[in-house]
Design a protein that fits this description.
Homohexamer. Organized in a ring with a central cavity. Residues 595-776 form the Lon proteolytic domain. It catalyses: Hydrolysis of proteins in presence of ATP. Its EC number is 3.4.21.53. The chain has six domains: 7-119, Archaeosine Trna-guanine Transglycosylase, Chain: A, domain 4; 129-224, Methane Monooxygenase Hydroxylase, Chain G, domain 1, CATH 1.20.58; 229-303, no CATH class; 317-494, 3-Layer(aba) Sandwich (Rossmann fold); 500-582, Helicase, Ruva Protein, domain 3; 600-799, Ribosomal Protein S5, domain 2. Strands 18-19-17-16-20-23-24-27 form an eight-stranded mixed β-sheet. It has a five-stranded mixed beta barrel with strand order 1-3-4-5-6. A five-stranded parallel β-sheet has the order 8-9-12-7-13, sandwiched between helices. β25 (776-777) and β26 form a beta hairpin. The longest helix is centred in the first third of the chain and has 32 residues, at 193-224. It is α/β, with parallel strands linked by helices. Helices cover 42% and strands 19% of the residues.
């Protein structure tokens, strides 16, 4: 019976062992519980009296402790709240400490620990001078402790100052101090408040003294180590670490390596001197500093510049012409100009020629012809896309002092090419913008001036670079947007839109083969007829170049690949089955009217994708003299219409027109396809012809097209885009085209197939236009009308 315990004087409570935590009476504690025994103990407590016994583990690393692995003293607590953590089996618990207690015995009750505990007795602490002195001492020491240990809040200090109960004060200080785990447990195991405050006084004094000593040590170290000594120490430490790891260099060794590379450069002494100064800066900088990184990056980039490295030109004019002809169909004017430049370079390698700008609509081969030129010269080719560039620093670079600074695009192109004489294509130079960040087009002036680019200064590199051996070629779709000084530095070579025959030959000789190779098809597997290619050009594309044509051929190749993969032996495309693969025809052909009409004339217009027919329709209606202009006409075209009306008013007697038609008739001028904007003065002759036809009732010949501006006195003024306009007239079926006399010189640019099929008639005044365009010449006396048959020959006509 010696081991018998009378349980009537003790409490039997579920136990939860704590790891690394010590609880005190009157303390509210939040903690998570994950062990199964602890969760079971908490569930049992919540099902009964909500009381739990929390006791700390001696070794917090033990996952499943026994009664020997916990301290004998813990705290009886009341569970205030218990929440299940979402997506987990763990519990989040809030408890409030009630009283100290010591374990009498601990046993396992089902799936959790239970303990029989003996609650600590309540001590009566008398108010004595000694206790008051201890309270004051502890409070003063804690104030010092809190002033050194910055993590303690002012609210905690204030509460401690106001507390006068020894038991509550000691527990609250222990709860809000950063003592070691063993010290906190020792304070918990002291039941007598008077003894506890004595121990706490000693413990606080010890902690405060330790913190003061640490602070003094830090102050002394901070004073003893100045900036130079600290940098020296860090350098030596980095050196030792690098030596131990077998990697890295000291700043001195690194600078010596840079100096060796700089001295081996084939550049001027001024450049070497500047770079060597940067090396001297590197020696004085700590290896890990930001400034050192900036200098290293700068030196590395400068050493990448290919000083003294030049590609050896292999210029053979006959071979170059063959390469250009093999890669591009047509473009004779451009090829001739390129061959001329090559001939000059072969004869005088030191020649710094004009900067060439290839100007034309998209897809005509501006970029690809530069690649062919580089191949024919054996030079490196680099392309710089200028479309959308707004920042001047993109061209000239950023100052190296800025974070993330880098050379400009021109300098980077030289580095990428690896030679000092590459061919640099400045693509889409007309798309360069300007805003508050600067004007990039102005930054290009120095690089594109043969007289200045031998000392081009990039802001990042910060010393002159010789670009005189670089062959700059630019491309543009619209030269009107290029700044005047930049335009003046370039020789503009125009690449016009391709004719139908040129597109056919390009597709036949280049595009089909290119797409067959890209899709891994053989000529036996994929066949396309000539009529199908013509139909794609005329009914599925409307462009100056051949990009859309290439896309449609690629679509056919994809269709062929699917059929071949499904077991088909070959794939053949004809004009009959083309719509099965490409869908409904997107564009209808421009066609002339089927019969001569009154008030309807075949005008001609230039667009970005080539020439097009521009029918002009006029109706004279009874009214009050209003002029109505429709068809999405621009201001210039509206002015041409008003000029035409004024001219006809001045010729009413000669043409047999009522002299007051401008008062009694409403004139409605319309250009079909109103969704497409139309502008320009070149429809002046056409509008005047249609107006005279409408007012006189004389039909206009269906097979005649015309272009030209009209003056107020009836003169035919020159226009642009004659090649494209004449092609449009030819495709529509016109056999006669009336042009201003000043455009006669432009007939040399028109392709032979158009010259053979179309008769061009140059005119200097509107009277000559009437002779060719109207069925007969209207006179004041209707009986005296002169009839001009369509097969009559006019002395001013020129047959090409």
């Amino acid at each position: 019976m010696d081991n018998y315990i009378d349980l009537n004087n003790f409490e039997d409570i579920p136990v939860v062992p704590l790891r690394g935590l010590v609880v005190y009476p009157n303390m509210t504690l939040h903690f998570d519980v994950g062990r199964k025994k602890s969760v079971a103990a908490l569930n049992t407590a919540m099902d009964t009296h909500q009381m739990i016994f929390l006791v700390s583990q001696i070794d917090s690393s033990i996952e499943d402790p026994s009664e020997r692995d916990v301290y004998e003293v813990g705290v009886i607590c009341k569970v205030k709240q218990m929440i299940k953590i979402p997506n987990s089996s763990n519990l989040r618990v809030i408890v409030e400490g009630i009283a100290r207690a010591s374990i009498v015995t601990m046993y396992t009750d089902g799936d959790h620990f239970n303990a029989v505990v003996d609650r600590a007795p309540i001590y009566d602490v008398e108010v004595s001078a000694e206790n008051t002195a201890y309270i004051r001492t502890v409070k003063k020491e804690y104030e010092v402790y809190a002033s050194i240990f910055k993590k303690i809040s002012n609210e905690v200090v204030a509460k401690i100052i106001c507390c006068e109960d020894i038991a509550e004060l000691t527990d609250y200080i222990c709860e809000n101090s950063f003592f070691s785990f063993s010290d906190k447990q020792a304070m918990l195991e002291e039941f007598d408040p008077q003894e506890r405050i004595k121990k706490l006084t000693v413990l606080l004094k010890k902690e405060t003294t330790s913190l003061e000593i640490e602070a003094e040590i830090q102050d002394k170290l901070q004073k003893e180590i100045d900036k130079g000594q600290r940098e020296y120490y860090l350098r030596e430490e980095m050196k030792v670490i690098s030596d131990e790891l077998g990697e890295g260099e000291t700043p001195l060794e690194e600078a010596d390596e840079y100096k060796t590379k700089i001295n081996n450069l084939k550049c001027s002494e001024e450049i070497k001197s500047k770079l060597l100064k940067e090396c001297e800066k590197l020696i004085k900088m700590p290896s890990g500093s930001h400034e050192g990184t900036v200098v290293r990056t700068y030196l590395d980039k400068c050493l990448e510049i290919p000083f003294g490295k030049y590609s050896k030109d292999r210029i053979n004019l006959e071979r170059s012409r063959k390469i250009l002809d093999a890669d591009h169909y047509g473009l004779d004017k451009v090829k001739t100009r390129i061959i001329e430049s090559l001939a000059v370079l072969k004869r005088n390698p030191e020649y710094n020629g004009q900067i060439i700008c290839l100007y034309g609509p998209p897809g005509v081969g501006k970029t690809s012809i530069v690649k062919s030129l580089a191949k024919s010269m054996n030079r490196k080719y680099v392309r710089i896309a200028l479309g959308g560039v707004h920042d001047e620093a993109e061209i000239r670079g950023h100052r190296k002092t800025y974070i993330g600074s880098m050379p400009g695009r021109i300098m980077q192109a030289i580095i990428d090419a690896g030679t000092m004489n590459p061919i640099v294509l400045l693509d889409e130079i007309d798309k360069v913008g300007n805003d508050y960040k600067g004007d990039p087009s102005s930054a290009l002036l120095e690089a594109l001036d043969p007289e200045q680019n031998n000392s081009f200064n990039d802001h990042y590199i910060d010393f002159p670079i010789d670009l005189s051996k670089v062959l700059f070629i630019t491309t543009a779709n619209d030269t009107s947007t290029i700044s005047a000084p930049l335009h003046d530095r370039m020789e503009i070579i125009e690449l016009n839109s391709y004719s139908i025959e040129e597109k056919f030959n390009i597709a036949k000789q280049h595009l089909v083969k290119k797409e067959l190779k890209k899709h891994n098809l053989s000529a036996r597997e994929f066949k396309i007829s000539d009529d199908a290619i013509y139909k794609i050009i005329e009914c599925y594309t409307r462009e100056a170049g051949v990009r859309s044509l290439e896309k449609n051929i690629a679509t056919l190749c994809r269709k062929a690949t699917v059929d071949l993969e499904n077991g088909k032996k070959s794939f053949k495309v004809t004009d009959k089955n083309l719509s099965d693969y490409l869908g409904v025809e997107k564009y209808s052909k421009d066609e002339i009217p089927k019969e001569n009409q009154i008030g309807v004339v075949n005008g001609l217009a230039w667009t970005q994708v080539g020439g097009t027919m521009l029918p002009i329709e006029i109706s004279a209606l009874d009214g009050t003299g209003k002029i109505e202009l429709t068809g999405n006409l621009g201001d210039v075209m509206k002015e041409s219409a008003k000029t035409a009306v004024s001219y006809v008013r001045s010729k009413t007697k000669e043409y047999g027109i009522e002299s007051d038609f401008y008062k009694t008739k409403d004139i409605h001028i319309h250009a079909p396809e109103a969704a497409i904007p139309k502008d320009g003065p070149s429809a002046g002759l056409a509008i005047t012809t249609a107006l005279v036809s409408e007012l006189t009732g004389v039909p206009i010949k269906r097979n005649v097209a015309m272009t030209g501006e009209i003056s107020l006195k009836g003169k035919a003024l020159p226009i642009g885009g004659l090649k494209e306009k004449s092609m449009a007239a030819y495709k529509a079926g016109c056999d006669t085209v009336i042009i201003p006399k000043d455009n006669f010189k432009d007939l040399s640019e028109i392709c032979d197939e158009v010259k053979t099929a179309v008769r061009f008639i140059p005119v200097s005044s509107f009277d000559e236009v009437m002779i060719q365009a109207l069925e007969y010449i209207p006179k004041k006396d209707k009986k005296q009308n002169i009839i001009i048959k369509s097969d009559d020959t006019v002395s001013s006509a020129v047959t090409q």
